[in-house]
Specification:
3 helices, CsbD-like, mainly alpha, disordered N terminus, YjbJ_sf
């Protein structure tokens, strides 16, 4: 049985206006560029990985950052 799609965590979904959120992230983290913040439908895990790699953060830290941005 393949459970890699879970990676042990709940699936993460972007809520709200991603365009606005990505602009906030770029202001907050100058290392992030537009190419790091491309969100393709169903590929949230790839987005988390790109942001994590760029900011040297693990998945949970990136999710917290994104959640804080989504609900601010």
């Amino acid at each position: 049985m393949n459970t890699d799609h879970n990676k042990g965590d709940k699936a993460f979904k972007i809520l709200g206006n991603w365009e606005r959120q990505s602009q906030q992230l770029k202001k907050q983290f100058s290392k992030l560029k537009d190419s790091d913040l491309v969100l393709d439908k169903g590929k949230e895990d790839e987005l988390l990985e790109r942001i994590g790699n760029k900011l040297s953060k693990n998945r949970e830290e990136v999710i917290k950052i994104l959640n804080d941005t989504q609900f601010s």
